[in-house]
Amino acid sequence: xxxxxxxxxxxxxxxxxxxxxxxxxxxxxxxxxxxxxxxxxxxxxxxxxxxxxxxxxxxxxxxxxxxxxxxxxxxxxxxxxx
Length: 82
Prior knowledge:
Layout: E1 9-15, E2 23-28, E3 34-37, H1 49-61, E4 64-73, E5 79-81
Antiparallel strand pairs: 1-2, 1-4, 2-3, 4-5
């Protein structure tokens, strides 16, 4: 779904207690480890908040805090979050 113009929501996550180091979800590996990205084309997009809840729950069960954010294209394959 990455790069979709219709799906604009993403998950921002960080280890509990490390809110100063947030990341944006690219994918979750089979072993449950989240992989982050800094490129718009690699962001894993959801159509809305409820669609993202299952992945949010998985991350929270593994010791992460999460926030569902709206992801917008900036320039040069970068993004900014609302």
